[in-house]
Amino acid sequence: MTFLRRGIAVVAALPLLTLAACGYGSESKADNAKEKVAAGSSKIDGLDSVKIGYFGNLTHGTALVARQQGYFQKQLGATKAAYQIFNAGPSEIEALNSKSIDIGWIGPSPAINGYTKANGTNLRIIGGSASGGVKLVVNPKKIKSLKDVKGKKIATPQLGNTQDVAFLNWIADQGWKVDATTGKGDVSVLRTDNKITPDAYASGAIDGAWVPEPTASKLVAEGGKVLLDEASLWPDKKFVITNIIVRQDFLKQHPKAVEAVLKASVEANKWINANPDQAKAAANKQLEADSGKALPAKVLDPAWQSIQFTDDPLASTLNTEAEHAVKAGLLEKPSLKGIYDLTLLNKVLKAGGASTVDDAGLGAS
């Protein structure tokens, strides 16, 4: 989830791309009966497969549930739903650009970065997926109030990523100064991979972290305290954390396939919101299938509760996040006009009797 100027991008992306050394992401094979192609079904747009990318994170719960419940395969008929799992946004954007995937679940920062670097020619955001699920968790022995954050060591997942930008913006709002690139200043901002943040916290190397779920709840399980939920800083407590993107050429050539994936996404979100406990279990089951390890209840339960699953891409908040990155000096002012195409999503929503969603004036003409 990374906002970066061109000069910084190469340095930050290299270690992340290393995580996907075997291609851009790890391929994931069907492992449950609900993913099997139904007998007598036909291919969509004559396609043998649609390649779908997502992260093994709870903030990508729509994709996890849609896969585990077989919604993708049901909507695609005899066209096989194929999957790649990613660790970082830059590698997923590279996979999209190289046509290794067709559609992906991804955070706002890499979507903006990818779109602007390609001069608006490579992707469109075609739907929303999740809001929220980001918290500032601290060591309560060292930090008892928000003002105590000054002078402390706070981790964010990656230089210029969505949470990093949000934290830098919050720091500026307190009147404190931090060099965005080095992380040095009134607060020490330490860019730390989410996988090792809990260990860094346990060892005392950091005093807290501004991180997404489930990392935030993992820190709480280590004795941390939630000092601030980022949702409290946004109007209506909503801000985009995960969107759905598609290659522009794939959208143009195979709109029926894209519509099928969107139908599966809408179906998944409807089921998630109607059956939160079952959906939480389904998402965790898919996480276990993808990573070999399920989340314990003490982490899963609070993490899932803090995420809102929505079809609305919350386009106005994407624009605000980009403005925060510009203010922090991590992004040149981007032109985001055309980043959205919500035509097919609104068609699906309208057909299901749901309200349509808005692109905040950033839609493709």
From TrEMBL:
Compartments where found? Cell inner membrane; Periplasm
* CDD domains according to UniProt: PBP2_NrtA_CpmA_like
The record's annotation in SUPFAM superfamilies points to: Periplasmic binding protein-like II
Segments traversing the membrane: none
Highest taxon listed in the record's lineage: Bacteria
Example GO molecular function term? ATPase-coupled transmembrane transporter activity
Specify the signal sequence span.
1-20
Q: Which keywords label this protein? A: Cell inner membrane, Cell membrane, Membrane, Signal, Transport
**Primary residence:** membrane
> Which InterPro entries does this chain map to?
ABC_SsuA_sub-bd, NrtA/CpmA_ABC-bd_dom
GO cellular component: a single term: plasma membrane
* Record flagged with keyword Cell membrane: yes
Q: Which family does it belong to?
A: Belongs to the bacterial solute-binding protein SsuA/TauA family.
**Family annotation (PANTHER family):** ALIPHATIC SULFONATES-BINDING PROTEIN-RELATED, TAURINE-BINDING PERIPLASMIC PROTEIN
Query: Protein name, please?
Result: Sulfate ABC transporter substrate-binding protein
Q: What lineage does UniProt assign to this protein's organism?
A: Bacteria, Bacillati, Actinomycetota, Actinomycetes, Kitasatosporales
